[in-house]
Amino acid sequence: MLTQSIFVRVGLHVSIAGSVDRSVDNALSRGCTAFQIFTRNPRGWAAKVLSEQDIKNFKEKLAASKIDRLATAAHMPYLPNLSSPDEDPFTKSLNSLSAEIERCGRLGIPYLVAHLGSHKGAGDQKGMEKLVKAFTKAAAENNNDVIILLENTAGQKNSVGSNFEQLASILFQLKPANRFGVCLDTCHAFAAGYDMRTEKAVALTLEKFDNAIGFEHLKLIHLNDSKGELGCSVDRHDHIGLGNIGDAGLRYVIKFANSKKIPMILETPIDERRDDIGNIKKVKELA
Questions:
Q1: Computed over its alpha carbons, how large is the radius of gyration of the chain?
Q2: Is the whole-model pTM more than 0.85?
Q3: Is 115 a catalytic residue?
């Protein structure tokens, strides 16, 4: 019996080693129909300047591929902490955010995913105030159409934005509203206590998201299984279907994302159990 092939916007976080345009090659070689990158080395503060040739090559390769530009995203580097109560790290983090928005604008990447950071014991309210200040200022400094996506956290100590109401509280203070959205990470949501193991559980979790934030603000999904148990507050990603969320829940998330045309990015491990290509294949099977 012939089964109809479903088009799924799914991809990986891919390397830009060599030059930023290599990310398109890396995405295509793994069967991606979406992808995410760091625009620079994520482990330091200094960023290599994007040359006009790099930008031209990236745009040309992307245009020649079958990957929709609106299914591409960049991720903030690791070091910035936009919730920091300390002035020096906060300023460096804000400058890094502003620079990334500018780089995404030049590359034509529509989304920039931002971690919300740690208030380091200063309290949720203080952390949220710093986030609102950073996001508002960075958006104002860059007159482009890059949408900054707030990523939900796993509920680690001193982290901000693990529950949907708090995420909504931050999002709805940000202006202009059309410059901001949300990236929902399934592993983080599960670790923060949102059950995603069955169709019914996912439907309930998504209903909570819609009530607090609204699906119109959901622009990207980080599709990850979880090594940790429900509500563990530990951010440890697992292969699709092999973690504590499992096939049934993730299948429903994939179905939902497809119905809304929301791209999905995998940030899954590579080990003896499965590689990137195996995880992409698994998502397409579940779809």
A1: 18
A2: yes
A3: yes
